[in-house]
TrEMBL record:
Membrane-spanning segments: none
The protein, known as: Gfo/Idh/MocA-like oxidoreductase N-terminal domain-containing protein
Domain of life per record: Eukaryota
Lineage, top ranks: Eukaryota, Haptista, Haptophyta, Prymnesiophyceae, Phaeocystales
Family annotation (InterPro entries): Gfo/Idh/MocA-like_OxRdtase_N, Gfo/Idh/MocA_Oxidoreductases, GFO_IDH_MocA-like_dom, NAD(P)-bd_dom_sf
Domain Gfo/Idh/MocA-like oxidoreductase N-terminal: 27-157
Domain GFO/IDH/MocA-like oxidoreductase: 174-311
Family membership noted in the UniProt record: Belongs to the Gfo/Idh/MocA family.
GO molecular function annotation: nucleotide binding
PANTHER family in UniProt: BILIVERDIN REDUCTASE A
Pfam families the UniProt entry points to: GFO_IDH_MocA, GFO_IDH_MocA_C3
Amino acid sequence: QQPLCVMSGDGAWRVSATNTTDDKPAQIAMIGAAWWAQGWHLPQLHNNPNVVIAAIVQRSEQPTAAAYLHTELESKTQLQERYKGVPMFSSVDELLADKETLDKIDGVIICTGHSMHAEMGLQFIGQGKNIFMEKPMTVDVAEARELASVAASMKHKLCFMVNNSANYRDNCFEARELVEAGRLGEIHHVMCCMYSPLMGLFDDPANASWVKPTGTMVQSDGSGNGYGWGQLSHLLGWVLFVGGLGVEEVTAMTHRSEASGADLTDAALIRCSKGCSVSLSGSTCWPGNAHGDVPTGKQFDIKMFGSKGVLMYGGDDKNPGSGRLELRLHDGTSHVTEGFLMENLEQGGDGTESLQHFVAACRGKEYKNGADQEVGLQAVRVLDALYRSAASGKTEKAL
């Protein structure tokens, strides 16, 4: 049996500056240039005065987005025109062979299909590059363990971040600080829910990469991809980071789409170390469209029950005024911070909080890491066990 994965120690997510004199911009390479890269990462990097886009790797001439989005992406040729002077490559191997370009790179953003994350992450860690990886970190536990192990061995030299953007919001860091300081006491139970208006994405077989399992994702009943991998990794990343929980086993049930086969709803009881339980609920059946002309917000509700009280956070992620962070204690005291900030999907400006922290890391400046390799690994372990349990009808150990 694999040893339990234990979260990083108290305060390990705060990283001091190693460079206090040099103000050179970070040289960052974009690996994968499809929907998320074109809509968020590339324009934000381009707008950031502390960044130079060092390279773009895009395999196909014409990147594609999920059919549900009804979006035509720019071709590789158009990207070359938009980002003039940026070296363009068709593969990671091609970039690695260009020593002049490679030597300039401080960090890479890996924004490819999940199945390629581990291989590319290991390649660039081996080249001494900081890593900013889209979530989930991988969809294979063995790959996630190898990646986490290698990244951890380099943690005093390199930064490894998973882009759980909610984890880099101030409210998330504040929640983690409250837990670290012992304000909540020992955590006994967590209730966490996430509901997304994304039926058009997960109920349609045309959105293959979101609904069809591949490789080790495939379960005995043909299930293995859907709302869990696609959305619950956001919620789990937040809960696992804030609570610092070690996962042991999962008992789960899902409801699958008749059209696509993807899981549309997920329910799980997660047994954690030190006797803590997590009740997880998720569904893509919330009415509306998260990517419509007038986007509908995703709904969150998180409650952590500890020996001293309860920590609460929830709301509509399109409405910052819809919620707040509240610590309510048995001694009658409380701590409240107004505002609800979960995922950051803003497309303008010079980068989300997560990207800003990565840029700081690449420049040797002080930064915070809300989703390191351990958070990424823990989320993969939970989701892998969730899908196995839903297929087997039994409680499954987290590998």
